[in-house]
Amino acid sequence: MSAVPDQVDVCVVGAGPVGGTLACLAARAGLRVAIIDRAPLPPMERPEFDGRAYAIAAGSKALLEQAGLWDALPLPAGEITDIRVTDGRPGRPASPLSLRFALAELPEAAPGSAFGWMVEARSLRRAINRMLHETPGIAVLAPADATIERTAEQARIRVRDGASVTARLVVAADGRDSALRRAAGIPVTRFTYDQTAIVAAITHERPHGGVAREHFLPSGPFAQLPMADDEEGRPISAIVWSDHYRAAPRFLALDDAAFGREIARRLDGSLGAVRPVGRRWSYRLSALYAHRYQACRLALVGDAAHGIHPIAGQGLNLGFRDLGVLAPLLAAARASGGDIGGAALLAAYQRGRRADNLAMLAMTDGLDRLFRARNPAIRLARDIGIAAVDRLPPVKRFFMRQAMGV
Fold first, then answer.
1. What is the number of alpha carbons within 13 Å of residue 382 lying toward its C-beta?
2. Cα–Cα distance list, 280 to 45, 119, 239, 378 (Å)
3. Residue range 187-212, pLDDT digits in tens
4. Nearest-CA neighbor of 118 among 25, 21, 231, 208?
5. CB atoms within 10 A of CB 277
């Protein structure tokens, strides 16, 4: 735990990817920052590959570069340069009407750019832990339990070991079950999908070539996402497989050989033989949106403010897009001598983010419902729609820019 100053500009609660990135961005803009997490930071760093990775959109990569985190990643990231979307059923040929996003079709795409990058979870964790301790102006309080009292003028943070610090603004980056959001009385609407996401990784016989595949199945989307080769030069991909929550435990309990066969059934055969590596993870899928993103001296970011279906791989990127609005507002307030955490700043942040997040929630929810519909007429209509987008360059470019987060 770092030495605790008496006063800071911003106190971030939650040292995950969104909270940790905000702390680095704010400190680099000259603000004094305290970041609090209930867990100790070093044990979050697992030295072995555990099967988890983040899809980082191009816009999010730019933010991580500003925060000094991208260059601090200790492991290489895998580029996504091609996205292919198909509709079908496990073990059966995909619909011939498919959609392909190729970076070469986007006029503004610079050489070396990508739709996104797959970053191992342990790599980003290690970069955040390092930069939180190395960036001047950040006080790290972890592990720490704190109580926070907010008034019209400031917030007071009391840590259980007796330390106390005041801040102009508290940022809740403490996840979907945010205690800060609950304490502020901010209402939340939630809904649960009848799906569980199975997250894993595979090695495969053939190179992925930077291609990400999303295969829409009746039980939910199945995505293969290209990662950087492992230490032995073997190609690796992340798998995000959404299936009915009653079926998921059976798949999770399979041995590696049987689990690999189930994954192979859901791929199109282009990667050759596959083998699971690392752990398997599962998450019951749900969505939520907070009715407000701010209260007195409080801002909500990331999962504390919103959660969506993973069908478009944009959940974490929406959190980074929150920071793309909030961090410049904080920097501008500091430069002008304005009130960091004042009502005007918080209202501007909410205006800048809530509509975008709600639109993404509606889009991902609608896509999930559309692609799980079993009605043959609806299936034909969506396949024709996929093919139509593939043949309409302006519409296609719109979706490519959305995927890149730019």
1. 21
2. 18, 17, 10, 33
3. 999 999 999 999 999 999 999 999 99
4. 208
5. 17
Q: Which amino acid is at 3?
A: A
| pLDDT class of 45 with cuts at 50, 70, 90 | low
Q: How many Å apart are CA 138 and CA 32, to the nearest integer?
A: 6
Give the helix/strand (H/E) hosting 195. Answer: strand 188-204
Classify strands 306-307 and 298-300 as parallel, antiparallel or unpaired. Answer: unpaired
Q: Yes or no: say if 165 and 8 are a contact pair by the CB < 8 Å rule.
A: yes
The continuous run of DSSP H or E covering 13 comes out as: strand 7-13
Angle at 284 between CA 279 and CA 290, to 5 degrees: 125
Q: Is the pLDDT of residue 319 over 90?
A: yes
The proportion of the chain whose per-residue pLDDT surpasses 70, expressed as a percent, equals: 85
| Residue-wise DSSP of 36-77 | E-SS-SGGG--SS--S-EEEEEHHHHHHHHHTT-TTT-SSPP
Domains annotated on the chain, with CATH: 7-51+122-190+288-367 (3.50.50.60), 78-119+193-287+373-404 (3.30.9.10)
Which residue matches tokens 């959305």?
402
Look at residue 197 in the predicted model and tell me its pLDDT: 96
Contact partners, residue 137, CB within 8 Å, separation at least 6: 27, 30, 31, 32, 33
